[in-house]
Amino acid sequence: MRKLLILMLILGLPSGVLAAGGLKSCGTVECDRVNIDLGDKASLQNGARIFVNFCLSCHSASYMRYNRMGHDLGISEELVKGNLTFAAEKVSDLMKAVMPKEDARQWFGVAPPDLSLIARSRKPAWVYTYMRSFYRDNKSPSGWNNVVFANVAMPHVLYEWQGDQRAVFKKDVHGVEVFDRFEIERVGTMDPKEYDRAMRDLTNFLTYLGEPAKLVRYKIGVYVLIFLAIFLVFAYLLKKEYWKDVH
Ligand code: HEC
Ligand 1 centroid to 246 CA: how many Å? Predict the structure, then answer.
């Protein structure tokens, strides 16, 4: 009985820790769920477009080359060249930030970090919630703050899409101010559903960026399953052939 208990403890402990990790909260709020689907090419392409146009000015993704991204996401070389490489000279370049790190440090007080691995270090749900949680704050140097990342140095670069929102705080039972809800101050060019969808695509792309080989692995996985299915037929026929004389 005791052995059984110890075994249950050993087996149960890691899964408990993993479950707690999965429910990681976003700063002071709970993360919103995001539906990551690396098989959704259209979503990944849209995420790439948003990333290159709105994030590469400050952030880099210096483990990724433009042509590798184009190849993985099914974007032709001409399209990559014509639409996505304004921050680079050649399609074989790494995705470097437009703004020099030193300038960015002076402007924002901190250098914007490389985003190659952000969806792995912070988790996709964190990135998704963060991108939707900027609010107007006159006390911050950029005029923006974020309920997921308090006093963040990054301005809300997509405010034209999302519009401006104000954060309303309330006092909890201990008298501590906690985030209650957002109130729209000015509507953006996208409605909330459209904006959420765009941020889902961006998060999907950042998840791909964190582990590009995943796409290749999925593809190989499908071939392996097809191979196994065909092999099963031959294995069965062979088994029948061997056992024919025994019965
Ligand atoms: C104007 C420059 C600028 C642009 C454009 C910009 N960011 Fe940032 N970003 C920053 C700075 C500066 C920080 C560091 C914030 C801090 O540490 O306080 C940051 C931080 C972040 C973080 C948090 C990193 C961490 O520490 O975990 C994420 C995620 C992020 N940016 C995503 C994005 C995405 C996605 C885009 C494009 C939609 C984008 N940023 C565009 C300046 C920028």
Answer: 71
